[in-house]
Every structure is written in structure tokens, then in C-alpha cells.
């Protein structure tokens, strides 16, 4: 539970935290907790790998789903129950809630992008509101927007009493809580830190708040700040991408904040094929031709690449190495972080 909480709360994976997570993953693999045993059935699937992504992308989202769109009591019961049947029911409920949360997030994110079409082209901060966006997912929407467009995002949910409640996310270049604090005369409540915050205000103050936040970001951020900087750890040749290399890299696990997965660069490879996958085409599968081999890749939340890239182009690829297990077959893939046309 310590390992799950440390990863889920986005704590740094350094020092004693890294040790707690490393050995926590070993304990999770042989856990006797009925609830964890059952939730793992949904989390592992065809990928029986016990690493930090198992917690961050599979266990934690399911446990958090109840608190986001239902009631967190279900998650607590799952973690403490000793009843086999109750554990099975609770695990399925949380899995279903997480699927519902994912669908709601995708639909709301699409609405937000449609609402922000003009702002994406002109503004250095993205601010949107909607009465139908669930308060438990506005932070996820803000995070996705900031990740894709590399600028601060503030997403509001409109309560029945008319009060607007927001979650905000930002980049390293802009201190979002400092900016929000400067608007305290307009706010009912606020709090957070440099890259994640929240606030609430009356509907009547919304436009003024937006104008002041736009003015602050325009004064603080340059056009260059709207482009993410990737810290490449190493450039690889295609023939160096082997399962042996991946196994050596995995000795650096567990990864997380402060101990990020190594990011590699492949230069001047041919994009042979690109196909949208997932609900609403939010992800893409890619194939790259190289003299050494054809490399397969996956781009999570990179669906937009299907509209911006053409097959046959020579591209530079920033990626992590990923082991994919499907139907008993294990293969090495590229987890694509970014692509640009070869220079």
C-alpha cells in the first residue's frame, strides 16, 4: 500500500521512496490482500509485468476512479476486505467505474478542444468551462491540454448553485498558483503549487478572471515557452534496439518523478505506416523502416499525429523502449513521445 500511495501521489522516486516502491512491487506480486488480488486480474491482462507503470497507469487509476466520479468508500473497502466474493464485486465495480471515467474524460476533452479552437491559436493559457464536465475529471482535462499544447490550462466545472470550481495545470515555465493568488480578490477559495492548483469563483467574476490570467501569461511566457523541451538521454542506432538493451535499462526501475525512464532518439528513419487506435483514435500505432529492421511503435494520446504526418517521410523519433506481451508473444516496441520531420 505504501508503494501504491507513493506512486499515485506523484512523489519523487528517489532515496527511500525508490526503495519502498521497489520492494512494494515485489510484495504486490505475492500479495494476500483479496482486493489487490482481484484488481490485479484487471490490471495485468496480457502484460504480466510488475513495474512502476503497473501502479501509475493501471492500479492507481482504478482505485482513484471511485473518488473521481462516485464515492471513495468503494476503494477503501476493496483494500481492507477479507471476503473473496466482496473483493471480486468491488474490483469489478472499480474497473467499470474507471472505464466510465475514461469515456467521460475523452468526451469532455473533445468538447474542451472544440471550445478552445480559437484560443489554442492565440492564447498562452487555455481556460474553459462547462456545466456538464464532472468535477472529478476537470483536473484530467487540464492535464491533457497542458501536456498536448504545453501551456497552462484552467478547466472549470459549473456547480448547480452557479459557483465555478476549477482545476489548473501548468508547465515548468509558469507558476500557476502564484498567478491564481494574484486574483484572490475574485476568488472564493484557492490553493495548490507551481504546476497544479485549484480555485473557485462566482460566475460574475469569470470573464475578469480570464482576462487577468491571459494578461499574466502573455507578459510571462514567450512563444518559445509554448514548445516543450525534451531531455534526450541517448541517441540510438536502429541495430542497437534489442531486448538485451531493454533488460539492462530495466535495472534502473522503478521509474517516476526524479528518476524518469530513459528517453532515446532515433534519427532519419522512414515512417512506413501510421494508424489511429483506441477510442476516438486517441492513440496511434506506427511502423518505421530502417536498414536493420522494421520497428513498431505506439503513441499514447498522440492521435493528432495521424493528421500531421505522411507515410514515406523521413523522421526523427523521441521514444522510450517498451516490451509488449500479447497472446503469449513478447516483442520490443517504441513508445513514441514525439516525432519531427528529419532535419
From TrEMBL:
Residues 232-338 form the RecJ OB domain. SUPFAM superfamilies: DHH phosphoesterases. The keyword Kinase does not apply. It comes from the Bacteria. Residues 123-216 form the DHHA1 domain. Pfam families: DHHA1, RecJ_OB. GO terms for molecular function: hydrolase activity; nucleic acid binding. The keyword Phosphoprotein does not apply. Keywords: Hydrolase. This is Single-stranded-DNA-specific exonuclease RecJ.
Amino acid at each position: 500500500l505504501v508503494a501504491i500511495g507513493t506512486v499515485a501521489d506523484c512523489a519523487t522516486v528517489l532515496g527511500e521512496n525508490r526503495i519502498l516502491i521497489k520492494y512494494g512491487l515485489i510484495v504486490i506480486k505475492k500479495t494476500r490482500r483479496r482486493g489487490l488480488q482481484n484488481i490485479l486480474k484487471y490490471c495485468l491482462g496480457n502484460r504480466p509485468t510488475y513495474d512502476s507503470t503497473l501502479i501509475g497507469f493501471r492500479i492507481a487509476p482504478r482505485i482513484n476512479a471511485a473518488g473521481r466520479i462516485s464515492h471513495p468508500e468503494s476503494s477503501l473497502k476493496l483494500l481492507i476486505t477479507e471476503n473473496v466474493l466482496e473483493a471480486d464485486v468491488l474490483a469489478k465495480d472499480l474497473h467499470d467505474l474507471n472505464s466510465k471515467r475514461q469515456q467521460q474524460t475523452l468526451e469532455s476533452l473533445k468538447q474542451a478542444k472544440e471550445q478552445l479552437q480559437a484560443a489554442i491559436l492565440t492564447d498562452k493559457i487555455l481556460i474553459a468551462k462547462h456545466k456538464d464536465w464532472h468535477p472529478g475529471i476537470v483536473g484530467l482535462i487540464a492535464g491533457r491540454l497542458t501536456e498536448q499544447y504545453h501551456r497552462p490550462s484552467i478547466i472549470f466545472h459549473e456547480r448547480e448553485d452557479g459557483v465555478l470550481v476549477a482545476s489548473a495545470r501548468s508547465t515548468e515555465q509558469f507558476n500557476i498558483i502564484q498567478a491564481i493568488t494574484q486574483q484572490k480578490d475574485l476568488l472564493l477559495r484557492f490553493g495548490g503549487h507551481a504546476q497544479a492548483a485549484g480555485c473557485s469563483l462566482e460566475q460574475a467574476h469569470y470573464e475578469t478572471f480570464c482576462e487577468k490570467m491571459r494578461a499574466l501569461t502573455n507578459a510571462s511566457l514567450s512563444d518559445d515557452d509554448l514548445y516543450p523541451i525534451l531531455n534526450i538521454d541517448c541517441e540510438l542506432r536502429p541495430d542497437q534496439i534489442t531486448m538485451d538493451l531493454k533488460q539492462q535499462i530495466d535495472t534502473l526501475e522503478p521509474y517516476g518523478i526524479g528518476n524518469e525512464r530513459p528517453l532515446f532518439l532515433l534519427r532519419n528513419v522512414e515512417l512506413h505506416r501510421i494508424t489511429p487506435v483506441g477510442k476516438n483514435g486517441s492513440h496511434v500505432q506506427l511502423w518505421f523502416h530502417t536498414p536493420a529492421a522494421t520497428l513498431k511503435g505506439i503513441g499514447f494520446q498522440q492521435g493528432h499525429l495521424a493528421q500531421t504526418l505522411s507515410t514515406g517521410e523521413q523522421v526523427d523519433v523521441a521514444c522510450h523502449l517498451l516490451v509488449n506481451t500479447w497472446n503469449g508473444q513478447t516483442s520490443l516496441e517504441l513508445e513514441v513521445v514525439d516525432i519531427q520531420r528529419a532535419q
